[in-house]
Design brief:
The complex is a heterodimer of chains A (135) and B (279). With 135 residues, chain A is of the alpha+beta class. Chain A has a single domain, classed as PAS domain (Beta-Lactamase, 2-Layer Sandwich), CATH 3.30.450.20. In chain A, 27% of the residues lie in helices and 33% in strands. Chain A contains five helices and five strands; from the N terminus they run αββααααβββ. In chain A, strand 1 and strand 2 form a beta hairpin. The radius of gyration of chain A is 15 Å and the shape is globular. In chain A, 36% of the residues are buried. Chain B is an alpha/beta fold. Chain B contains six helices and 14 strands. In chain B, the strands form two sheets. Chain B has a seven-stranded mixed β-sheet with strand order 6-5-4-3-2-1-14. In chain B, strands 7-8-9-10-11-12-13 form a seven-stranded mixed β-sheet. Chain B is globular, with a radius of gyration of 18 Å. The model of chain B has no long low-confidence stretch (mean pLDDT 96). The chains are: A alpha+beta (135), B alpha/beta (279). At the A-B interface, helix 1 of A face helix 3 of B.
């Protein structure tokens, strides 16, 4: 393994990863640029690949791949996303929308927690869970 | 840079014969730059004796605090130069939401904890939150970054064109992380310590003690050694000795470290140890 690194991830992200890696709720970590820098096993089931196999996913890539979208598959404006609230405004967010997963659209509820530390906003912890389909 | 250890103990000073060899004072490391500038890493009880040596000999002292736990600031009010009106003291410390560094330290340097209020300190004392990027003090490039410990805590890297010193006295990079396998960018403090000429690193616990103290913000021997190996430090000083560890225990931990570590030089930090990083 190459041990060269010019910078470490912010310690807020490092400690958040420790938590995300051991919880059973699907959770992802997003850096301040919006890149998906880590996701846990529960999230991997939705995303379709393990983080260890895939690695960092830039924002432009995951937004094309997964959305989020409305029920018709139309992308949701960025200002309406809970992740925007966390990254741009530094406040928690909540939303319910669809993502492209498992060959179709999956409706999920999403909560975002901005990782604001003493040195600023470093990203967000995002948890999500499927919305039960109405019978 | 000339480096000298004035306090290597963690948590609380340990006076008496049980600490005579390694020393009983809490964290304090003196760095004298090529320009003759005095940088002091942390103001644990070890800074008292250092202050006695510096008294009347320096005009400007920089004190770099990693964090404000008591064992890292308790010597500040017994540091002789801070009572000398002719001396300028710049205290650098971690950022925090809300109160500034001066206001946070004033809780300690004020009634009823201490008889002198922070505003009445005779020296010209200023308090500065560390910048987000590198800055220069006395010809040395200084870099600070938050590291894994309870509360906002900094590690420091001091660098010249000849050598580098990494100082992470309170650090638990192994918390929830497999240090052997983790990518370097996900190891707390890694870039501060990378390729350091000398790494001073937390090693408060023997391995069997660690499970009861996991999450306290300190490292066990194997984690400290793994961190040093991943950082490729040339020489590692294991630091912040547990106050309950007597001389024999520290000797044994030092022997364990020396036998298990093959990636560079490693030793237990000892009060009074001086290192010449100018060569």
């Amino acid at each position: 393994m190459d041990d060269a690194s010019d910078t470490d991830r912010p310690v807020e992200l490092i400690l958040a990863r420790n938590l995300v890696s051991i919880i059973s709720l699907a959770a992802v970590l997003v850096d301040i640029e919006g890149a998906l820098v880590y996701y846990n096993e529960a999230a991997a089931e939705v995303i379709g690949s393990r983080f260890e196999d895939r690695g960092l996913i830039p924002r432009a890539e995951w937004s094309v791949e997964m959305g989020p979208v409305d029920g018709e598959g139309t992308p949701i404006p960025i200002d309406d996303l809970p992740l925007t609230a966390a990254l741009r405004d530094g406040r928690p967010g909540y939303g319910q929308f669809f993502i492209r997963a498992e060959g179709g659209l999956m409706e999920i509820s999403v909560g975002t927690l901005p990782l604001v530390g003493a040195t600023g906003n470093h990203g967000a912890l995002v948890v999500f869970w499927p919305v039960p389909k109405e019978s | 840079m000339q480096v000298k250890l004035w306090g290597v103990r963690g948590s609380i000073p340990v006076p008496g014969p049980d600490a005579a060899g390694y020393g009983g004072n809490t964290s304090c490391v003196e760095v004298t730059t090529g320009d003759g500038c005095e940088l002091i890493l942390d103001a644990g009880s070890g800074i008292r004796a250092l202050g006695a040596v510096l008294e009347g000999r320096c005009r400007h002292v920089h004190i770099l605090l990693t964090h404000l736990h008591l064992d890292h600031i308790q010597g500040l009010t017994f540091f002789a130069p801070i009572f000398d009106p002719a001396v300028e003291v710049t205290v650098w410390g971690p950022p925090a939401a809300g109160e500034g560094l001066r206001e946070r330290l004033a809780r300690f340097i004020s009634n009823p904890i201490f008889p002198v209020e922070i505003r009445d300190l005779p020296a010209r004392v200023t308090f500065e939150t560390v910048p987000s990027g590198p800055w220069e003090v006395g010809g040395v490039e200084v870099r600070a970054a938050p590291v894994a410990h309870r509360g906002v805590t900094l590690g420091y890297r001091l660098e010249t064109d000849r050598a580098s010193l990494a100082y992470l006295p309170d650090h638990e990079p192994g918390l929830g992380e497999d240090l052997d396998k983790a990518d370097p960018e996900w190891i707390s403090g890694h870039s501060l310590a990378a390729d350091a000429s000398v790494l001073i690193h937390d090693c408060q616990y023997a391995d069997p003690e660690y499970p009861k103290h996991c999450g306290f913000g300190h490292s066990r021997v194997t984690d400290a050694l793994t961190f040093a190996r991943r950082a490729r430090a040339e020489r590692t000083l294991l630091f912040h000795h547990d106050p309950g560890h007597d001389e024999a225990t520290l000797d044994a931990l030092g022997e364990q470290a020396a036998s298990e570590y093959d990636a560079g030089a490693v030793e237990m930090a000892r009060e009074g140890l001086a290192i010449d990083l100018a060569r």
